[in-house]
Structure formats: C-alpha cells, structure tokens
Amino acid sequence: MNQPIERASDIPFPRERVFDWWLRPGSHERLSPPGWGEVIGGDRDARQVGDTVTLQPSHPLMSAIPGASLLKLRPVTARLDVVEPGERIVVALEHGRSRWTEETRFTDSGDGGTRVEQRVSGDYPASTGDAFQAQLTFLADQAEADLALVERLAARPSRIVVAGSSGLIGTQLVALLKMAGHDVTRLVRGTPEAPDEVRWDPASGEVPTDVIAGADAVVNLAGHTIGGRFTDRNKKLILQSRVDSTSTLANALRDRGSSAALIQASGIGFYGARRPAELLTEESRRGSGFLADVVDAWEAAAAPAVDAGVRTVFVRTGIALSYAGGALQRQVPLYLVGAGGRLGKAQQYQSWIGIDDLVRAYVHALFTPDLSGPINAVAPNPVTNAKFAETLGKVLQRPSLLPTPSFGPKLIVGDEGYDQLIDTDQRVSADKLLASGFEFTHPTLEPALRHTLLRQSGAGGHDSP
C-alpha cells in the first residue's frame, strides 16, 4: 500500500457550481491533461455511478520513436463509484494488478467559494506518485480557469457548429463548450458515429443546409496537418484543405442569410517565417514564403461571409504548447534522454501559447460580439529560442545546453519545412486579444510548460504518467 497523495485547493465559485462542473459532459477532456490518456472504451460523457471508461496511457518517448504506437502500456480502467451531490466523488481505477481510488470532497470555503480536497490512495503504481500530485494540481487549476472564463463571458446557451473537432484544439474546444452548456454539432468527413456528428464534404462544397441555418456560430479548425514533410502533395493538401473548408462554410453562411458568427482558424505564418527586430501586430504587412501564401489564401476564402456582414474572426495562432501534439510533443523525448537543446538560432524569437489558453481564446472570440478580423492568439511574452530551451530543460530537469543540429529536424520536415516551421523569427503582439478583455491563465512560459507537462516546481521528474 502506497502513501496517500493529498491536495487541497480553494476555487472562488459556489460549491454547487464547482461540483456540477466536475460531472459535466466534456469533463474528461478538460480535467485530464491532454496526451496523458486516450479514451478507448466506455462513454466519456456518461457520469452515472457505475459508469466505466477505459484509458490507454502512453509513454513520452513514444512520440519520437518510429512505430512506437505498437508499444502500448496496459490500459487503465476508471469506474465512477460514488457520487454524493455537492459533497463527494469517488473514482476507482485499475492498471494491471494495481488498484486505487481518487476521491474528491467539496465543502464551503467560507468566502462564497469552494474548498476542493483531493486524495489518491491504494496500490497505485509507485513510479507515478509525482505525476499524480501534479495531476491533482492540473485538475484544480483547470477547473478554476475554465469556470472563470465561462462566468466572465456569461453567454447564453448556444448552438455551435465545429469543423475539425477531432484535432488538438478541436477536442478541447468541444469539451469546454459542452461543459459550459452549449449544444455542439461536429462536422465530420467520414460516416457519423455519434449523435452530435453530421457528415460534410468540404472538397465538393457540401454542408447540410439546416446545420448552418440553425447555428449561432461556426468554428472552422479543419485543415491538413503542417507537421509533416513539405512534399508537393502535402503542400497541395495543406492549402486546398483549408481553402475548401473555409469557402464551403463561408458560402453556406452567405447563401442562407445566417447571422451566425464565423470563428476561423489561421496562423502567424501570415507574417512570414523571419521578421527580425519587428513587433508584429494584426496591422503588419503579410510576409513571404509558402505558409504566408497559405494563410493569405485561407483568410481570403472567408470573403463571402465577410462581405455578407457575418462577424468573422481569424485566430492567427502561434506555437501551441501541448503534450498531446505539435512541436512540444516531439521535443520532450529528446530532453528526457539528455539530448534536448534549442532549435534554430539562439536570439530568434518564437511566439507561443499554451493549449488551454488557446482553447479559451476561441471561446472568448465566440462570445465577444465586438471582436472581428484577425487576432493574434499568442501569449504576451514571446521568448528567444535560447530562453525556450533553457526553460524547457529547467521544467524537465534535463540539460539544454547543446543546440539541436538542423539535420535532425530536416529528416522529419525536410528543408522547406525546416525553413518555414523551425528556422523562424517572429515576435508577435497579443495586445489586440488583451484589449478585447481576454485574460491569460499562463502569460509566461515556465508556468505554461509546467501546466501542460505536469511538472510542478520541486517535482521529482518521473517520465511516465
């Protein structure tokens, strides 16, 4: 039997509200760190006593090892054992021969807030003690930040259509919208497999009429990944997938006379890969290069909606920090084996944003009616490559002194991919987002990395969840 792990937090919202938040549809995605366990069985939105969900954990090194997806760890089974409304939730977990419980108690804190007391006890895997402690911190911090956003916006329940809902951002966005009480319809290109899914075909411009006509807002996150090699085929897919999805939705909003807002994904690639000594704002001229061309065409494809008077927001996203995907997921394994270091020249800037702040920025854009046009979704404190490497090494408790040779990343993304994605120098302003009333949970790099990587100050630094 292992020593129990305990943590207490004060959340400045009424107990009934906080307790309800813990059991909302979407709570699994929002209250579990992205990338630390994929649901492979059960109903993630079912919150009745006896409901079971099966999770597939992964090891951080898997993201960097070809074929490592075959090296599956044993699944974790989680069963909801106790729900005492307003007071207590108990989840029983199994992992191989290990059995343990995670108990959460809710009491009034005396100032109108809620005292949340969390306890992990039983025969949990001994190597994961520090990760459990960090996970409890993540859970409480996430609940407080999400509740604060929802309370601040005070949006009425709305019907939101989301394209690209299965990706890194879309998964978390749909979960947060559901937890906030909104009705979400997900557009999928394959056969619908869930009640909230509807098929569409952006390549042929087809989207169901009633889906758009009945929506209060449309969020478009659809697009082929830019994380692979920049082959001619991939470049065509990167461009065409974005233009097709955007023009399809923009035309639908125009043709049906819909008053729904369009919240459109975009990127800071608009400014070009390298703009040294400039502070880039939404008013800055477009840059040059493949990604600048893509973003320009991507945003231009929304013209039918813009010209029809549809409120349209282009969320120009920086480097999104997440353990579940993107550049950070590929860097962490290198640091864990002692081979981490800066990418690119030391004094070149990178403009980043934590995945949870990014998701909240999308929700903010949805329910801030005065916000329109391009908006930079970046944290207000960009850093140099040298500072990023130093901070990531500190968080992971690993060395970060030696720069990563360019041939390594080039093997993954090719010469042009390296030029457009890694050898970049972009110092991008977040002033417009801040001026619109958005509040960052992690405006500086180290807390953002600690949050997404479950690495609290003074943690022992275990490598597996």
TrEMBL record:
InterPro entries: DUF1731 (IPR013549), Epimerase_deHydtase (IPR001509), NAD(P)-bd_dom_sf (IPR036291), SDR39U1 (IPR010099), START-like_dom_sf (IPR023393). Belongs to the NAD(P)-dependent epimerase/dehydratase family. SDR39U1 subfamily. NCBIfam families: yfcH (TIGR01777). It comes from Tessaracoccus flavus. This is TIGR01777 family protein.
